[in-house]
Amino acid sequence: MQNENKLDKLFQKLVDNTISKKELDCLTELVNNSDLDIIQNEIWAKHWEKAKKGNLPFKKRKNQDSKILLQKILYKIEDIESKKKIRTFVPSNKIKYWSAIAATLLLLAGIYFFNQKNTELPTTPIAIQHNPNSEAITLQLDNGTIETISDNGKRKITTTSGNLIASQQGNSLQYTGAETQNELVYNTLHIPYGRQFDLVLSDGTKVKMNSGSSIRYPVNFLAGEERKVFLKGEAYFDVAKDKAHPFIVNADQMNIRVLGTQFNLSYYPEDEDISTVLVEGAVVLYKEGADLKTNSASQLVPGQSAEWNKISNTMTIKEVDTDLYTAWIDGYLVFKASPFYSIRTKLERHFNITIEDKSGRLENQIYTATFRDETIIEILEAFKEDTPFEFIQEGSKIIILNKNAN
């Protein structure tokens, strides 16, 4: 009963828009430990009647927006997101109560979403939840539903009203851009280790996704606004030219801004560097939140790479052979004077395996090699010719041993 009284008071503060951050945290914890039916039917019901008569911003939301917001706040409360479970919490006849709860919780937590008259683009990096060790290519829709994409499949992706927004043909997913929208709706494509996939965005931008990568992008870009997507992993972008709508790729701390160009971007969270290699056109790199009118941005010309070190917070720009960075698009693995520890990481991503070096001899060995259709066994046999070692395979794990190990 004491908790219910406290919930009642805190919900009233939500309606009045007078709740503090500390009280909001307390409310979230109480919701987590309370009977949601009691909250809905006994506590929130009376506050909803007051709230819907007021002039709070969440009144502008559509039901579909509120359902999405609701799912997100409940995922956070019950830690469902981290467990990779998808549940439906909102019966259609109870949407109005839970829409208000979700909208006000998120509103007062400082999370603002889009309404029909006023849209704002995300300005901070978006966390992309993804398990690259999964063997399935998956597509997460705007409502939280996760669908599996087969390599050779054919399918159509539609809105709830039946309008076509994208179609799959084999190893490619293409968005139509046919449906006019006045708010951003996001999909997220996840590519596991050992796989690659092609994506064509609604503006015609082509994205080649490398293994262990994820990209979050709008189903349709908005007229008069930037075209912004969020990448984790590695991808090659062939950006459709549109001077009125700059294209921006966010990779953790960095933004890469272009109008129409081709470049390779690599950002794996476990790597120290965020690497951008420009093949054609021009790009501007700047830290998230930086003012482009100052000298805080760096521009690349074709044939240059920019390495942003996340630890030292520094950027290095240099001339490079772009083919070394883009050969993966055509199925090649190219290593030029590369240490084995770097090669090992790329092999693990490419073949969806783990490699453990128990010999203690290979990590800093330098190799130059090119592979295409070779198996992981054939590649290791090639390395053995330079530095003798033995290895055993246990399922998806390879263990490198000393030459004379038993």
From TrEMBL:
Keywords: Membrane, Transmembrane, Transmembrane helix. The keyword Membrane applies. Residues 332-400 form the Protein FecR C-terminal domain. Residues 194-283 form the FecR protein domain. Pfam families: FecR, FecR_C. The chain crosses the membrane at residues 95-114. The keyword Transmembrane helix applies. This is FecR domain-containing protein. Coiled coil: none annotated.
